[in-house]
Write a structure and sequence with these properties.
Length: 423
């Protein structure tokens, strides 16, 4: 039995879907353990190109099951559409299960999110994720298990709507139509109840049978509600330890933590980004034009991502927070045509050199301190062994390993499942 947790090591969009798809072949269960449909994991394999928002990226493994876990918030309409899209691609979704303790994201969560953003937000995707988590803490949400008893579910909803409608009224928005809510709940119950499981016994059955499990995080450690760049964060905990918390098993049972990082940095939304370098012509080379599935545009929003050089103080910080046993370094092929590569090794703050992460406000003010490494100026796309990479690419990898103190076991050299150099 082995429990592996895979999380983003930077700001999100690191290539987690690709690595999960690659690792899933050896897994009996893949669990998406937090987040909602506000971000996407891009998976490219022999079935096609898929943008995964709620369904675990392990769904392409024909011999294992997938679970949308307790720590997630689920927009049932979005999930229904995503499942239909995946099925249309020839993928079997009969092995997809849903935690009964996962919270339901309602249409009014999304409406309130959009209203709050319009009044001055932080650059959310307006998918309602933060509002759904806020109502979770207010204890005024339905969970997926409530769909088993619609009479009680409707009664709960009626008791919640006083607070909901007062919030909508504060933005001069119309109140919730309870008749529409009843219709939604009835539709969702008919579709989802055969897939809803009691998650603790479900996960522990795999543990007791010595099965292999992979817990899939969404977004990344720098967007963690507690450890990230608050308030420019997501509303859940995309750090490795939360896999155990939301999964309902002891953290000591985690055998391996894998951090996924890009060979450069990217971010979406507002907030500090010390190594952002939008005016550098080399960033245009890295970004691409948007005609390739791995170009630097958001899988959920389609927005052009903010780009910058690799920030090693950030990667060192997320390694400390998560305890990475291994790192997967994706998209190194995007650097193939660069003559030289800048790497941030420290910050300057008020005239002092620092490597520890300061407060969010101070991170806005820091100046990156760079070292410049030679590029390799040759293609890496067909390489399947790290040992066969160009010498300067291997030197770049070694430089990162020495700084953060964790080995790089996987190197992404293209968008597809097979485009991976390994030890």
């Amino acid at each position: 039995m082995s429990i592996t947790v895979l999380v983003g090591a930077q700001w999100g969009d690191e290539g987690k879907g690709k690595i999960i798809d690659y690792l899933a072949e050896k897994q009996d269960l893949v669990v998406r353990f937090q987040g909602g449909d506000n971000a996407g994991h891009t998976v490219i394999n022999d079935k096609g190109v898929f943008k995964m928002h709620l369904v675990p990226s392990g769904i392409f493994n024909e011999h294992g099951a997938c679970l949308i876990g307790t720590g997630t918030v689920i927009n049932p309409d979005v999930l229904m559409a995503e499942m239909a899209e995946i099925e249309a691609g020839g993928v079997d979704v009969s092995r997809l299960y849903i935690s009964g303790k996962a919270h339901i994201l309602m249409p009014y969560h999304q409406e309130l999110d959009a209203l709050m953003e319009a009044a001055g937000g932080i650059g959310t995707t307006k998918r309602g994720i933060g509002v759904a988590y806020a109502f979770k803490m207010l204890r005024k949400n339905l969970r997926m298990e409530d769909l088993f008893d619609l009479e009680k579910a409707n009664a709960k909803m009626e008791s919640y709507l006083g607070v909901v409608n007062n919030m909508l009224a504060a933005y001069n928005a119309a109140p919730v139509d309870m008749a529409q809510v009843r219709e939604k709940l009835s539709t969702w119950a008919a579709f989802f109840t055969p897939r809803i499981v009691e998650p603790i016994s479900f996960v522990h059955k795999y543990i007791n049978e010595d099965k292999n499990m992979l817990f899939e995080g969404q977004l990344a450690a720098m967007k963690d509600i507690d450890q990230g760049i608050y308030p420019y964060v997501t509303s859940s905990c995309p750090s490795a330890a939360y896999a155990a918390v939301s999964g309902g098993f002891p953290a000591k049972k985690i055998d391996k933590v894998i951090g996924v990082a890009k060979a450069f940095s990217s971010a979406v939304g507002d907030g500090p980004f010390p190594t952002e370098d939008p005016d550098n012509a080399q960033m245009a080379i890295i970004r691409g034009k948007g005609d390739k599935p791995d170009d630097e545009f958001g899988a959920r929003t389609g927005r052009s991502r903010r780009l910058g050089w690799l920030d090693l103080p950030i990667l060192r910080y997320t390694t400390m927070v998560n305890g990475f046993d291994e790192i997967a370094l994706c998209k190194i092929d995007k650097l193939d045509k660069l003559e030289s590569i800048k790497v941030c090794v420290a910050y300057e703050l008020d005239g002092k050199r620092i490597i520890d992460l300061p407060s969010t406000d101070d991170l806005e003010r820091v100046k990156p301190i760079y070292e410049e490494l030679p590029g390799w100026n040759e293609p890496t796309g067909g390489i399947r062994k790290i040992a066969d990479l160009p010498e300067n690419a291997k030197a770049y990898i070694k430089f990162i390993e020495d700084y953060v103190g964790a080995p790089i076991k996987y190197v992404g050299v293209g968008p597809g499942r097979e485009d991976l150099a390994v030890l």
